[in-house]
Structures are given as C-alpha cells and as structure tokens.
Known about the structure:
Elements: H1 2-18, E1 22-23, E2 28-29, E3 32-36, E4 44-51, E5 54-63, E6 70-75, E7 81-82, H2 84-101, H3 112-134, H4 141-146, E8 153-154, E9 161-168, E10 171-182, E11 204-207, E12 210-223, H5 225-290
Helix pairs in contact: 1-2, 1-5, 2-3, 3-5
Amino acid sequence: MVRRRCVRLSAQEASRRFAMPMVGLEGLQKQENFILGSSTMDQVKGVLTLQGEALTQADINLKMSKSNQVLHFTFREDKQWKMQQIQDARNHVNQAVQLLNSRDESYRFKTGAEVNKLMDAVMLQLTRARNRLTTPATMTLPELASSGLMKMFTPPLPGDVLVNFYINLSKLCLTVYQLHVLQPNTNKNFKPSGSSVLHNPGAMFELNNLKFEVSHVHKVECVVPWLNDTLVFFTISLQLCQQLKDKVRYGSCHYEESEMFNLTHRGRLEREQITGNRRRCSENLSISATS
C-alpha cells in the first residue's frame, strides 16, 4: 500500500508540472519567457514565450547567410502554436493518474496478477508520456513547408526560409532552414530527402513544381526547467512501479516455495506415518505368530 501511494504521488507531481501556476483573477496560465541560445553561432537569436502547452509568442532575429541581412519575425497577435508533444505527454500522465485513482487507499488487491495488470497499464502511459518529450516527431521538408507554422509570423516568412519548433528532453528547440531553388536545367542529381527531426544541408525536396535544396541549418534551444522536473518524476514513477511488481513477484515466489515446503514436509510426515503403521503391523503379526 505504501509503494502504491508513492507511485500515485510521484505521478501526480509529474502531472502537476504540466499545470503551470495560475496567476491573476483571470485564471490565466503563467507565461514564461525563454532566451534562445547557441554556443556556436549567432545567426539566430530570439525569445520564446511558453504558456503551458502553447507557444504564445516568438520574437526571432535571423541573419541571412548570403547577404548578412538581419530579418525580424514575430508571431501574429491572433496566433498561438500548440506544442503537441507537451499536450500528448500531459494527456498520457493524466491517464496514469486516473488509473491509480480508480482504486482508493483502502482497496485490497485480491491477487498479484491484479497488481501487475494495474502497474503495467500505468507504466505504459508513463512511458508514452516520457517518449513524447524525448522523441520529437519526424517530418519531411514538404510537410514542414505546408504546415500552419509557416503562416504564424509577421511579416510573413520569405519563401526560402522554413522554421520548426519541437521539444527534445527538457529543451525547447527552434530549427531554421535556409533554402535555395534548384534550376530546372541543373545537372545536380535530385534526390528528395525523407522524414527526419533535423535535416542537414544538402537535403532536397519538391513543392509546387519547384525543387529546393537546404543551404544552411541553424538550431538554437532553451532549457525549460519544469520539463526537466517532469522527466525526473517520470523516471521515479516508473522505478516505483517496477519495484512494486518485483515485490509482488518475490512474494509470489516466496509463497510458492512455502507451499512446496509444506507439501514436501506433509508428504514426508505421511510417509513416516505409513512406514510406522507398517512397522507396527509387522510387529503385531510377529507377536501373534509367536503366541
């Protein structure tokens, strides 16, 4: 019961990290500003504003590689970009908490298999939640170019720039791709790139009968502390679930060993009793024959 309570509390702590502190009478979620940084380049700089699972503002400066011209983009005031990874992770951890809360503290499990079934279901949801934060979704360049993210900015992004936001562990990442159009009569072998989290320079794709090649890739990121806390609680919760399963398995093995010992001991006593009865019968027969 103690371990089950610890699992519930740890999962609830993970879930609570997705519900950012409420401020003000309006009950709005707290907005947090994060400065994008990179130790190797200054082509991209900016500030991202995260409000729970929504990216509410992005203020980005991009230095174009060819011209060194600095372009400035921000989200339109009527636009927000939902971070699907955070939303999915929150939904999974909430399902884990609901599973744990489906039985109250006083509930007594009838069998070890019942405990294992619950722990397996909880661990599945926690693993899925963790994986959504540790494994960003892959996208093709045409998918990225056609996504709604390209229409979020003012002024509009130029046709030779693509951007992507994603979560990787506890980091909020921004990738900027600079493109150039391949001429129809180019001798370069055209090979469309596949789906990936991060595309390298030289990657090619086709969109609206035009062929493009990635000329430059810039990746910048910022650490989101509460995402790091969430991942820690995911790990603790999964460890507690496994410990509870191990304890059930140990208890089951100990019970089976006890039963085997009891059966063996009972069998030995029964054999000794039968042997004793036979001995007494033989002695009685010998005495009768002597008489």
